Structures are given as C-alpha cells and as structure tokens.
Amino acid sequence: MVPRIVAHRPRRSLLPALAGLLGLVLAVLLAGCSSGPSGATGASAAAVSTPAWAHGMATVRESQLPAEARQTLALIDKGGPYPYARDGIVFGNFEGRLPKHQRGYYHEYTVRTPGSRDRGPRRIITGQGGEIYYTDDHYNTFRAVLK
Record's InterPro entries (predicted)? Predict the structure, then answer.
C-alpha cells in the first residue's frame, strides 16, 4: 500500500482580521464622540451654535454659569434695578481682551461673589451688538456666554 500524502494548508489566523475590524469600529466610535473645537464645556457643543462674535474664544453656556451670574443676566434682561451702584457703567476694555470697539460699546455688571466683602471679581460684560461675556477673575480672562 502506498502511503497517501495529505498536504495540510496552514490555517489562517483570524486574530489579525478581528483586530483590524475592532480598530476600525473603535475609530468610528471615537470620531462620533468628539466635542469639536468650539471650546464649549460640558455636553456636546453642537447643541449650541457659536455666534460670529464669539469665535476664537472660550465659551460657556448660560445654563452652566453660577446661579449668581444667571441672576445678574435676568436683571440685565429686565433693565434693573441693580444691587450695585456701578452696575451698568461703561466698561473701558483697557486691557484689550475683548474685541476693539468705540468707548461706550461695552457695559459691566457685578456678579455677586458669596463670601466677598466687596463687589468681588466676577462680572458680566455686555456689548451693544448683543454680546455677553463672563469673567470670574476680574477681567483677566473672558468667556463668551452662549444662550
């Protein structure tokens, strides 16, 4: 009897194919979870469109501001009365941290800081074009407020 020679094909490993598929699925999932470049914090930034005046700067949604800042915004919407004598005065933008405009374009309002004996460092700045900015460090940095 003649021995029969059986040629064995090497088995292809499924491991490299599965690893490639898993990598592709992971890449698609991660791309779909990206929050985008708008600088908004919290939930998806796509839910709030960024107005032209706020492009290129940090943003914060009105709903994410401290309660005291939201109260100040409500007073601004009503036209006062304001709790601080200096609320509504012209903000000079002397440091140039906001876009340049003529004097009188911006106005500032105090945001109460719990525990502070004076006006504290927090302010809302409004512009004549409807812009709203928030600072919690006495004009060192600003975030555009998105409604």
Answer: N1-like, Ribonuclease/ribotoxin
